[in-house]
Design brief:
With 147 residues, this protein is an alpha+beta fold. The chain has one domain (2-141). It is 40% helix and 24% strand.
């Protein structure tokens, strides 16, 4: 399980608004000799915090420290849907653009096919990702138990 610490900002209708802090990431060796520093570079493009509305089965109150728990398989599935499917769309679209362009096909046909393939790939990945509930994050009390 992936555990992300957060704090409850609001509670409403059995749901809690939880703010997670940015930062972290990487392997944890950023400040050591030989560390790649990728978390430092990534922090330039990452928000300071993120807010999520989650079901509140633990009856957390405003100000409570909590953990957001997400199954590791969900992260892999999200990467596949978010990256692999659109990239496959680009490759297949470019190939189809060249094939459909015939013997005089060039870069323009490949580019047009890649653009259409990207759009189709994004549409397919969004369609496959909607309505999935097996990967819903779970709210736990910080320190009570791990995910």
């Amino acid at each position: 399980m992936i555990e992300v610490p957060g704090e409850v900002l609001a509670v409403e209708d059995g749901r809690a608004l939880v703010r997670t802090r940015g930062g972290g990431g990487g392997c944890g060796r950023c400040h050591e000799a030989g560390g790649c520093g990728s978390a430092k570079v990534g922090s330039m493009f990452r928000a300071e915090h993120a807010d999520f509305w989650l079901d509140n089965p633990i009856q957390a109150q405003v100000g409570d420290p909590v953990l957001i728990c997400v199954a590791e398989a969900v992260s892999a599935q999200a990467a596949m849907l978010g990256y692999l499917v659109p990239v496959l769309g680009i490759v297949v679209g470019a190939a189809l653009g060249v094939l459909l362009g015939g013997s005089s096909a060039g870069d323009a046909e490949a580019l047009a096919g890649a653009a259409v393939g990207l759009l189709v790939g994004v549409f397919v990945s969004r369609s496959l990702g909607r309505g999935r509930s097996e990967g819903e994050p779970v709210l736990r009390r910080a320190g009570e138990r791990t995910c």
